């Protein structure tokens, strides 16, 4: 499969992901392709968000926009898609409502609501249902011309289930908390089903050309430590264990895997033993403490600037970068760190301020070379 793509010119993130000593820490950011870029709105035009995801030409154009804009300041691209394509593949209707976000007109309400049984019984043909994602990945790899590697991704089972029962974003998490405390066994059965679809989806993204993958557990922080061990951790571990097996079955090489459990600061030690190569940190983590927690385990950390610093002055950005470089011990370690924000870029960020963030990482890590 790799033979059909141009040779890779920048493999920095792949070397860093394997724990190798590198000349500088690689950089990419979550949601780097998106609405903060003026060119995103031009390319999107009047299309609905999911229309953009389903059109490989548009999705590949959007994926490449930050690479075109920021050039050699970036070391990876991530396919323009959405975590909620999995519930769609499982037969649920998901819409993207302007200025509101994702919306499920008919969310799962109880295990007896009729829809739960349909979702559980449905045989999901992932290759067919999500073919547009794989076409977009293959097209993007060709268009990248080997400039940087390409990430594939999926949502974590817990986070996907939150959306499937809440019907969209929420601050209360009333419905999902009802599920885990009232219907724990039915919850676990659906989480397992979602996990199997996640493995298939990630494997097919690699087959299509993705060179790294990330699992986004965006709502992990809504779980207590005890609940995380029941409703998130086993399914993250399932993905980490079964994705390499699925790739082997397909005759494909294992790729670096990232787990990002946002808000679950208490689970960092556990995350280092889940089977992933890279553990993503949100901005609630102190980098120096995280490095200590990892200890001598062969884990690479990714993160973790507060995305909100990009609304600040250049002096504030420089200070945040300086603290990160010091916290991750870059001057003495020269490995084990991939630069990112602690979550995705937020709306209304000025792309020039993000560019300054990238430039400061380059400047301050070269200074410490």
Automatic annotation (TrEMBL):
Domain Uroporphyrinogen decarboxylase (URO-D), residue spans: 26-35, 151-167
Pathway, per record: Porphyrin-containing compound metabolism; protoporphyrin-IX biosynthesis; coproporphyrinogen-III from 5-aminolevulinate: step 4/4
Q: Which UniProt keywords apply?
A: Cytoplasm, Decarboxylase, Heme biosynthesis, Lyase, Porphyrin biosynthesis
Q: Which domain of life is it from?
A: Eukaryota
Query: Coiled-coil stretches, from where to where?
Result: none
EC number(s)?
4.1.1.37
Reactions catalysed = uroporphyrinogen I + 4 H(+) = coproporphyrinogen I + 4 CO2; uroporphyrinogen III + 4 H(+) = coproporphyrinogen III + 4 CO2
Q: Which terms under GO biological process does the entry name?
A: heme biosynthetic process
Single Gene Ontology MF annotation: uroporphyrinogen decarboxylase activity
Q: Give the main localization category.
A: cytoplasm
CDD domains reported in the protein's UniProt record? URO-D
Is Transit peptide among the key words of this record? no
One Pfam family of this protein, by short name?
URO-D
Instruction: Name the top EC class.
Output: lyase
Note the PANTHER family from the entry: METHYLTETRAHYDROFOLATE:HOMOCYSTEINE METHYLTRANSFERASE RELATED (PTHR21091), UROPORPHYRINOGEN DECARBOXYLASE (PTHR21091:SF169)
- Job description of the protein: Catalyzes the sequential decarboxylation of four acetate groups of uroporphyrinogen-III (octacarboxyporphyrin) to yield coproporphyrinogen-III (tetracarboxyporphyrin) with the formation of intermediate hepta-, hexa- and penta-carboxylate porphyrinogens in the heme biosynthesis pathway. Acts on a number of porphyrinogens, but only coproporphyrinogen III can ultimately be converted to heme.
Q: What family name appears in the similarity comment? A: Belongs to the uroporphyrinogen decarboxylase family.
Protein name as catalogued: Uroporphyrinogen decarboxylase
Instruction: Please name the source species.
Output: Chaetomidium leptoderma
């Amino acid at each position: 499969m790799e033979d059909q793509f141009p040779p890779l010119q920048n493999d920095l993130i792949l070397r860093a992901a394997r724990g190798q000593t590198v000349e500088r820490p690689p950089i990419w950011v979550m949601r780097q392709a998106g609405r903060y870029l003026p060119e995103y709105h031009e390319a999107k035009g009047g299309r609905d968000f999911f229309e953009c995801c389903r059109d490989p030409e548009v999705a590949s154009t959007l994926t490449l926009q930050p690479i075109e804009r920021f050039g050699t300041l970036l070391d990876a691209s991530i396919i323009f898609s959405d975590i909620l394509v999995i519930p769609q593949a499982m037969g649920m209707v998901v819409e993207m409502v302007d200025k509101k976000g994702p919306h499920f007109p008919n969310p799962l309400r109880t295990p007896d609501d009729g829809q739960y049984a349909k979702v559980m019984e449905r045989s999901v043909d992932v290759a067919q249902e999500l073919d547009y994602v794989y076409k977009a990945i293959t097209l993007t790899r060709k268009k990248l011309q080997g400039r940087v590697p390409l990430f594939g991704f999926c949502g974590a089972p817990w986070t996907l289930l939150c959306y499937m029962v809440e019907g969209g974003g929420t601050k209360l998490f009333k419905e999902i908390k009802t599920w885990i405390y009232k219907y724990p066994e039915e919850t676990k059965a659906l989480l397992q089903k979602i996990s199997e679809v996640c493995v298939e989806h990630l494997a097919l993204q690699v087959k299509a050309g993705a060179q790294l993958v990330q699992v986004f557990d965006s709502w992990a922080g809504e779980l207590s430590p005890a609940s995380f061990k029941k409703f998130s951790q086993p399914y993250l571990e399932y993905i980490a264990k079964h994705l390499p097996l699925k790739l082997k079955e397909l005759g494909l090489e294992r790729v670096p895997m990232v787990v990002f459990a946002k808000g679950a600061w208490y689970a960092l030690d556990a995350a280092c033993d889940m089977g992933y190569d890279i553990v993503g940190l949100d901005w609630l983590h102190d980098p120096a403490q995280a490095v200590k927690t990892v200890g001598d385990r062969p884990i690479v950390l990714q993160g973790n600037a507060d995305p909100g610093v990009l609304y600040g002055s250049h002096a504030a950005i420089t200070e945040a970068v300086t603290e990160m470089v010091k916290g991750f011990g870059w001057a003495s370690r020269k490995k084990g760190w991939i630069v990112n924000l602690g979550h995705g870029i937020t709306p209304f960020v000025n792309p020039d301020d993000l560019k300054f963030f990238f430039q400061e990482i380059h400047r301050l890590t070269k200074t410490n070379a």
